[in-house]
Inverse folding.
C-alpha cells in the first residue's frame, strides 16, 4: 500500500517533468515503478543550479514571515505557513527576500565583476550592499563589514560568538563556480566566510552545505549526500541531527541540524521548505539553505508555480541572470589575488 502510494507520487512528479501541464495518456504511464528513472528525463546542471538559487530565495521569502516565531506560534497564526505572504517582524511586502538572498547576490556579483576570485571585490560588494540600507543585517555581518571599511582587513579575528549562520547562508554562488574543484571551493568558501565569521563550526558548516549542494548539482543522489554527511559527522559530531535536537536559533549548529533533518526526510522541494520554515526560529535562513539543497536535488521543475509567481520578480530575474552567468565563468575559476580590475587578456 505504502509502496504504491510512493510510486503514484513519483509518477506524478515524473509526469510534470515529462509533459508539463498536459494530461498524460493513460497507456504511457502504465509502467512498473522501477522503470520511472528510465522514462523520466534527467535534470540538467542548469535545472539543478537554477532550482537551488530560486529555491534558496523562495525559502528566504517564505521563512521571513515567521522568523523568530516558535513552531507553536506559527501554528496558532497560520496553521501551516506555505505561501509567500510577506509580513513578519520585518513587515515585508509579499515575495520579498532578506539579507540571506541579498548577500548571496552580492557575492555572485563580485565573482562576475572579477570574472574569478578576488576577495577584496567580495568585501567591497558586501560594503555596497550594507550601504544600500537593507531591511535586515546580522550583528556579526555588520561588525565584519565595518571592520573591513575601517581597517581594510579581509579576515575577522577568531571569535566564540562568530558561529552564526551568516557565512554559510551566502555561499551558493561559490558552489556554482567551483564545481569539480573541491579544494578551491573550500579555500574560497573559508575566505569569504572569514570576512565576517571566523569560527571552526561556521567554516565546517559552510563547506559541508556547499559540498552537498555540489554533489546534487552534479547529479548525485540522497545516498551520496548521506555518505558525505556521515563522514563529516566523524569530525563534527555536533552536527548530528537524528534524532533532531529541536533547536532553530541563528547558531549554525542548530541550522545544520534542522536543514539536514528536513532535507533527508523530504521527497520533494515544497515539503522540504515548508517543513523547515514551520519550525520557526531563524526560519528564513534555514528555509533558504533547505531550498538550496532541495532545489539542487529536485530541480527548478519541482518548484510550485505559485511560489514562482509570488517571488519578487526583480529578485527572480537577478537570480536567473546570475545563475546563467556564474555557470558560464571559466573553470577552474581564475584567482585574482593581486587586486582588480581583471587584466583584459583574461576577460
Ligand atoms: Mn534573513
Ligand atoms: Mn535569518
Amino acid at each position: 500500500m505504502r509502496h504504491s502510494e510512493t510510486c503514484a507520487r513519483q509518477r506524478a512528479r515524473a509526469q510534470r517533468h515529462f509533459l508539463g501541464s498536459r494530461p498524460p495518456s493513460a497507456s504511457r504511464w502504465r509502467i512498473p515503478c522501477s522503470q520511472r528513472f528510465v522514462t523520466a528525463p534527467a535534470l540538467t546542471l542548469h535545472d539543478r543550479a537554477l532550482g537551488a538559487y530560486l529555491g534558496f530565495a523562495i525559502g528566504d521569502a517564505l521563512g521571513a514571515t515567521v522568523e523568530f516565531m516558535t513552531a507553536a506560534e506559527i501554528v496558532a497564526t497560520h496553521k501551516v505557513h506555505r505561501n509567500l505572504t510577506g509580513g513578519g517582524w520585518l513587515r515585508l511586502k509579499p515575495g520579498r527576500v532578506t539579507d540571506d538572498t541579498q548577500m548571496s547576490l552580492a557575492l555572485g556579483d563580485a565573482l562576475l565583476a572579477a570574472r574569478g576570485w578576488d576577495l577584496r571585490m567580495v568585501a567591497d560588494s558586501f560594503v555596497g550592499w550594507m550601504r544600500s540600507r537593507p531591511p535586515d543585517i546580522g550583528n556579526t555581518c555588520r561588525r565584519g563589514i565595518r571592520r573591513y571599511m575601517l581597517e581594510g582587513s579581509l579576515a575577522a579575528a577568531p571569535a566564540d560568538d562568530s558561529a552564526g549562520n551568516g557565512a554559510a547562508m551566502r555561499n551558493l554562488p561559490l558552489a556554482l563556480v567551483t564545481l569539480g574543484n573541491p579544494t578551491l571551493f573550500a579555500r574560497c568558501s573559508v575566505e569569504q566566510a572569514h570576512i565576517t565569521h571566523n569560527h571552526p563550526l561556521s567554516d565546517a558548516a559552510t563547506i559541508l552545505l556547499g559540498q552537498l549542494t555540489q554533489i546534487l548539482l552534479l547529479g548525485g543522489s540522497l545516498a551520496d549526500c548521506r555518505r558525505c554527511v556521515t563522514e563529516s559527522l566523524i569530525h563534527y559530531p555536533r552536527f548530528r541531527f537524528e534524532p533532531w535536537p529541536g533547536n532553530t536559533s541563528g547558531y549554525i549548529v542548530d541550522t545544520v541540524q534542522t536543514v539536514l533533518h528536513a532535507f533527508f526526510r523530504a521527497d520533494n522541494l515544497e515539503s522540504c521548505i515548508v517543513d523547515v520554515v514551520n519550525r520557526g526560529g531563524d526560519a528564513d535562513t534555514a528555509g533558504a539553505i533547505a531550498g538550496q539543497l532541495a532545489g539542487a536535488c529536485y530541480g527548478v521543475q519541482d518548484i510550485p508555480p505559485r511560489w514562482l509567481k509570488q517571488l519578487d520578480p526583480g529578485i527572480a530575474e537577478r537570480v536567473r541572470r546570475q545563475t546563467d552567468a556564474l555557470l558560464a565563468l571559466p573553470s577552474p575559476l581564475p584567482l585574482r589575488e593581486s587586486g582588480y580590475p581583471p587584466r583584459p587578456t583574461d576577460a
Observations:
- The chain has 16 helices and no strands.
- The two ends are 58 Å apart (CA to CA).
